[in-house]
């Protein structure tokens, strides 16, 4: 790896912080989502139900444990920590006239603690935690008014932390809004009123609303990039894409064409706009073919051109097969499932493991954009067993990460300009898709179960020392 490679780990505020209503914080959309399992979907309840478990309310209580957790990250040798900020900790309702000082101070303290160990903060501004006040008042990002709320939030944190944070991501996995069933998680919006519904339910979907909300996020992101550069020209501000690596099921030309079209809309549409600064032709055709009409202001095209990002970041977990014909054997995935690939193994949650797909993806992305690239999420969700001696022998996680890092190194040899790598869930956290703790990703075990019981004690796993060695040797020692 090149000198200065950013090794580290990644989390999201709504999955680790807890303290959902402490020190002036308002509710976020994540705070209105119940627990669940990988077989029982989470629900969205616009009014909190007594006796119902909401995982984000406590999460793993990073809010109280951040000093201990950051010390553990430092023991592993982290160069960077990718984290998100809880918008409603800064602006409790999203559109408040002034920010919440207690929330601002909390992040001051976190950044100061990171700097103490020479760990670079890598901050996601919005990571599935739109203030619920904006859902109630505007139906989230469907309304253009939320752009100004977001820009005011950005202006506040850019000015406050301009000397503490250099790396920013405007939206986490912004391309989720190209997928049905993501209105609430991606845009803080509901299609049919405020009744309780299943999380990610395609029945509660409206493509017109999704893509209108997405356009508003494009404009907000571009404005934030331009604003950030004016506040501190040294800021590096990037996009973040959930990359869903697709292969054609067969060499049937229909499979090839459908794979290309799926990849264009799900993976490239958003980054084409954020990196290149304009709506691509295939995207315009998709909108027209699906009866989606984006309402734009005359100045929007210029805003998009002026607010292109400095680097491209993405999450990568698996690959999927695409077929033009119905197929019976399917698998799950991060945001969407697909057809089972007979050449790949699957995790306990049915996700296909494809390290070579990471190399393929890195080359695809870098060839297209020719700007620095960063892997900000990659990891294995698994059930970890605490042995009688207290150890956690997660060799399966080590194997997963090793195989992906090997392919990452191959991509660098191919010529990809890779900035860094932050493994997802460097400490166990609440799963966003299912609300579980059972599905663990971290190098650090947190004593908590799916029902919210546990001491919250932190315990390093076997992978902790393995990753420490990887960072110490800048990726040379993977044994």
Automatic annotation (TrEMBL):
What segment(s) does the record annotate as region Disordered? 18-39
The entry's cellular-component GO terms read: cytosol
Tagged with keyword Lipid biosynthesis: no
Query: What SUPFAM superfamilies does its record include?
Result: (Trans)glycosidases (SSF51445)
Question: Sorted alphabetically, which keywords does the UniProt record give?
Answer: Glycosidase, Hydrolase
Name the InterPro entries for this protein.
GH, GH_1_N_CS, Glyco_hydro_1
Keyword Hydrolase part of the UniProt annotation: yes
| GO term, biological process aspect, one | carbohydrate catabolic process
Q: Which family does it belong to?
A: Belongs to the glycosyl hydrolase 1 family.
Q: What is this protein called?
A: Amygdalase
């Amino acid at each position: 790896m090149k000198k200065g490679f950013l090794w580290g780990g990644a989390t999201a505020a709504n999955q680790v912080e807890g303290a959902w209503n402490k020190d002036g914080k308002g509710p976020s959309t994540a705070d209105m989502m119940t627990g669940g399992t990988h077989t029982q979907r989470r629900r969205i309840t616009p009014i909190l139900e007594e006796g119902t478990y909401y995982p984000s309310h406590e999460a793993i209580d990073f809010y109280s444990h951040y000093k201990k957790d950051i010390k553990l990250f430092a023991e592993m040798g982290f160069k960077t920590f990718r984290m998100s900020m809880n918008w409603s900790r800064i602006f409790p309702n999203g559109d408040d006239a002034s920010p919440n000082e207690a929330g601002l101070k909390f992040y001051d303290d976190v950044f100061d603690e990171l700097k103490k160990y020479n760990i670079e903060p890598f901050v996601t501004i919005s990571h599935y935690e739109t203030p619920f006040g904006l859902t109630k008042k505007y139906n989230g990002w469907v309304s253009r008014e939320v752009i100004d709320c977001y820009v005011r939030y950005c202006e506040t944190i850019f000015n406050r932390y301009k000397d503490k944070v250099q790396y920013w991501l405007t939206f986490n996995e912004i391309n989720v809004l190209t997928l049905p069933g993501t209105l609430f998680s991606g845009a803080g919006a509901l299609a049919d009123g405020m009744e309780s519904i299943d999380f990610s339910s395609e029945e509660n979907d409206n493509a017109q609303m999704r893509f209108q909300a997405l356009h508003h996020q494009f404009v907000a992101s571009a404005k934030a990039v331009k604003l950030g550069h004016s506040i501190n020209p040294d800021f590096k501000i990037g996009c973040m894409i959930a990359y869903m690596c697709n292969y054609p099921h067969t060499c049937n030309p229909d499979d090839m064409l459908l794979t290309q079209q799926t990849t264009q809309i799900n993976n490239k549409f958003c980054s084409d706009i954020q990196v290149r600064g304009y709506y691509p032709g295939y995207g315009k055709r998709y909108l027209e073919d699906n009866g989606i009409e984006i309402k734009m202001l005359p100045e929007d095209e210029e805003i998009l051109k002026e607010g292109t990002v400095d680097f491209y970041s993405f999450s990568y977990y698996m690959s999927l097969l695409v077929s033009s014909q119905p197929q019976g054997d399917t698998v799950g995935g991060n945001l969407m499932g697909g057809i089972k690939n007979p050449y790949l193994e699957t995790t306990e949650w049915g996700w296909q493991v494809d390290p070579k797909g990471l190399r393929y993806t890195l080359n695809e992305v870098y060839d297209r954009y020719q700007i620095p690239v960063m892997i900000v999420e990659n990891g294995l969700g698994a059930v970890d067993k605490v042995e009688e001696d207290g150890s956690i022998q997660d060799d399966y996680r080590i194997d997963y990460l090793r195989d992906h890092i090997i392919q990452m190194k191959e991509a660098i040899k191919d010529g990809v300009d890779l900035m860094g790598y932050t493994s997802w869930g460097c400490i166990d956290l609440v799963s966003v898709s299912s609300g579980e703790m059972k599905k663990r990703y971290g190098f650090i075990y947190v004593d908590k179960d799916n029902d919210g019981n546990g001491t919250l004690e932190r315990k390093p796993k076997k992978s902790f020392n393995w990753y420490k060695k990887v960072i110490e040797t800048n990726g040379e020692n993977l044994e």
